[in-house]
Amino acid sequence: MAAQTDKHSNEKADELTDFGYSRVPEAEKARLVREVFDSVADRYDLMNDLMSFGIHRLWKKHLVRSSGVRPGAQVLDLAGGTGDIARLLRKQTGREGSVVLGDINNAMLRRGRARLEDNGVIDGLEYVQCDAEQLPFPDGGFDLITIGFGLRNVTHKETALRSMYRTLKPGGRLLVLEFSKLQIAPLRPLYDLYSFKVLPRLGRAVARDPESYQYLAESIRKQPDQDELKTMFEQAGFERCSYQNLSGGVVAIHSGYRI
Question: Mean of the per-residue pLDDT values for the chain?
Answer without folding.
Answer: 90
